[in-house]
Amino acid sequence: MNIGNGFYIETRWSWILAEIISCHLALLLLITLTACGGDVSQNKQFTPLARSVKSSSIRNEPISPLPESVEVNEHWLSLGRKLFHDKRLSANADVACVSCHDLSRGGADNKAVSQGMDLQSGNINTPTVLNSRYNFRQFWDGRAASLEQQIDGPMTSPFEMGGTWPDVLRKLKADKSYKQLFSQNFPDGVTKKNIKLVIAEYERSLITPNSPFDRYLRRDDTALSPQAIAGYQRFKALGCISCHQGINVGGNMFQHFGVMGDYFADRGNITEADYGRFNVTGLEEDRHKFKVPSLRNVALTAPYLHDGQAQTLEDAVRIMGKYQLGIELNDESVADLVAFLISLTGQMALISEQSAQEMAIDE
Ligand code: HEC
Ligand code: HEC
For the stretch 209-227, what's the b/e string if a residue is b when 16 or more beta carbons lie within 10 angstroms of its beta carbon? Predict the structure, then answer.
């Protein structure tokens, strides 16, 4: 399924079908060729669908490229997309998931801290939902183990959507279209579990492949400017990579914020949100520990850090140098690193709010 802007989602069914057909074809071919004494592997025409790029064509680096497409359940996805855009999920019907996770703003809101129902300010910066399937846990403090589990947070937080599950269930059950769509997909219809399943499935479709850096990883020598390549070399040489790594360039570990200096003492006004992982475990060693954020599409999601205090990528990079590595980065290093970070912007699904709304409506 092509859902716009060169963004492809393969449904399980079309894959299974393609698989069955190609298996049959391959078997048929094998029989024919064996009978004729031919060599199957040399017959290019019958090479199975190229599902992924051969690993040998990917550079051996501590960051791996995003796949160009992912398998998702198309029916769940469209139901999840509808819910993601539906303000009725909030108590006052004034906020939807998309209000804070705007796909045209890199899956976030470009505010220092989020703003929820009745324009109430939250206490922490909104992270992106893009590529969130690749984070090892969800939230800055990692308190949710899965995308499904994460959904309770915003739905019931008084600073976000302020709703209650019974209320949301009542509203959706009263809606003919939802009732029908849910019962087409689930024998038990509209339930809390099924709502979570479909929203999470939608989020799992929000990947952003083919960034210039991913194309570079796939050995496209023209994908990156010399400055971005220099920035990547610095990213590795300075040790940024020890925390921001893997397929999401982050999102796979917790780390202290302030390894080499006391960021919080320097900033002042410490709030509960600054305690990070400590709020979950109560362990002193977890105070000020956060999930290392993914740096994919980071150029789109200013301001930065859990407190939204870094206005620009340059600011964020200098803060990282100072508090995470104990070095003062010079202007040239900062510019190179920023050029590399900008090369992590991929192709976005449903790039504009409008196209997302249109799709939600015509389903
Ligand atoms: C009022 C703004 C707001 C709304 C509405 C909202 N979110 Fe969020 N979202 C946030 C903030 C802020 C965080 C970070 C909270 C934290 O880490 O403590 C977050 C975190 C997340 C994360 C975790 C990302 C990561 O990298 O850790 C996901 C996934 C997510 N939200 C999905 C949703 C879904 C689905 C909905 C609708 C049911 C939703 N959000 C509604 C502001 C919002
Ligand atoms: C010791 C681990 C560690 C190292 C080394 C490190 N970072 Fe980070 N980085 C983090 C953590 C943790 C955060 C989140 C801090 C917070 O907001 O609480 C972060 C946040 C960021 C952000 C802001 C992301 C956002 O969405 O708000 C950027 C940009 C960033 N790092 C880039 C870099 C660069 C460039 C380097 C190397 C100069 C680097 N980091 C080195 C752990 C690290």
Answer: bbbbbbbbbeeeeebbeeb
Q: How far apart are CA 204 and CA 184, in angstroms?
A: 21
Widest CA span in the chain: 79
The DSSP-derived string for 275-340 is GBTHHHH--GGGTTEEEPPP-TTGGGS-SBSTT--B-SHHHHHHHHIIIII-----HHHHHHHHHH
Token pair belonging to 10: 């393969």
Find the catalytic residue in 68, 74, 160, 203. 160
Q: How many domains does the chain have?
A: 3
Tell me: do 323 and 356 sit in the same domain.
no
Q: Which residue's CA is the nearest one to ligand 2's atom 18?
A: 306
Domain annotation covers residue 95: yes
Co-location of 201 and 108 in the same domain: yes
Ligand 1 neighbours by CB, cut-off 6 Å: 89, 95, 97, 99-101, 114, 116, 122, 124, 126-127, 129, 132, 135, 138-140, 147, 150-151, 154-155, 160-161, 199, 203
**With a threshold of 0.70, does the pTM exceed it?**
yes
What is the 7 CA–ligand 2 centroid distance (Å)?
A: 29
Ligand nearest to the CA of 292: 2
Confidence (pLDDT) at 55: 55
Residues in the chain: 363
Q: What pLDDT score was predicted for residue 40?
A: 33
Is 272 among the catalytic positions?
A: no
Q: Check whether residue 140 and residue 36 sit in a common domain.
A: no
Helices first, then strands: H and E counts in the chain: 15, 4
104 with 156, same domain: the answer is yes
List the residue whose alpha carbon is closest to atom 1 of ligand 2.
Answer: 324
215: tokens are: 């194309």
* Ligand 2 closest atom vs CA 307: 17
**Structural domain harbouring 44:** 8-51
Name the token pair of 80: 């999840």
pLDDT digits (tens, 9 = 90+) for 207-225: 999 999 999 999 999 999 9
Is 79 found in the same domain as 35?
A: no
